[in-house]
Amino acid sequence: MKFEIEKIKGIIVPLITPVDAEEKIDETRLRKIVNHVIDHGVHGILAFGSNSEFYMFEDEEMLQATRIICEEANGRVPVFFGMGKIRTSHSVALAKKAAELPVAGISILQPMFIKPTDEALYNHFRTIAEAVPETMVLLYNNPGRAGYTMSLPVVRRLAHDVANIVGMKDSSGDVTYLSEVIRQNQDVDFRVMAGKDTIVYPALAVGAVGSVCSTANMYTELVAGIYDKFVAGDLKGALENQFRLNPIRLSQDAASFPAATKDMANLMGLDLGASILPTEATTGVILEKMKNEMKAGGFL
Known about the structure:
Elements: E1 10-14, H1 27-39, E2 44-47, H2 59-73, E3 79-83, H3 88-99, E4 105-109, H4 118-131, E5 136-141, H5 143-146, H6 152-161, E6 165-170, H7 175-184, E7 191-194, H8 200-205, E8 210-212, H9 220-231, H10 235-250, H11 259-267, H12 284-296
Parallel strand pairs: 1-2, 1-8, 2-3, 3-4, 4-5, 5-6, 6-7, 7-8
């Protein structure tokens, strides 16, 4: 089967999930943020990435919200479904349901909390991918959240052995690791995306096809411009965009993950509701630092 891997490119935004006072997903505001990011230039949407608070929602909540996102996007940009269940059988069941939606692909985080052997991790991903053979699957390496890095040999085996594992999002922030994933899988056209907003430019320089950036919820044109200018040959302009973004993004690091993304979106009037408890909104000195960097970047 030929997969539409060309859909995996550019700036894909892990869409903020807006909730109401009862922590139910707010459909009206969800549709609004879908249109906001598309109108301002993203190349794709990831439903239920890390900054979408995927770990806070039940399966049916995630699936229903993704249906709404797909409906509102209406083919204007590809929509991907993100998941990170620990149990393999649970992952298979959810992936099968997600594959029934009009999504371009499924992004799967390595299991959190536990630390599988390389062989166990290989079997986990292969089992899930082979359960949805007609759907593109992206590996998602996030050592900061999962507690360990997917080894290069595991990534290489999966890329070469499983037909529908066609790419990867790497949130390690390690450009050497990222470039090795790209180098070692060039022969199978494995599409690699950075998962750190601060290294979009260097990732593109070593062969990444784009980046998954939470800041694209708020600073959409700035972040999308890094990619658009780079592929147009305006390397100076792309780097200027990257350097304008970085201090804003770095100011989030002192806040509780993932509160800062919603905090900044709400400061900019996007009205996406509170973070889901126990995550609480950023306050005090940390919030002031975030505001100062947003002002310095021209966003407040």
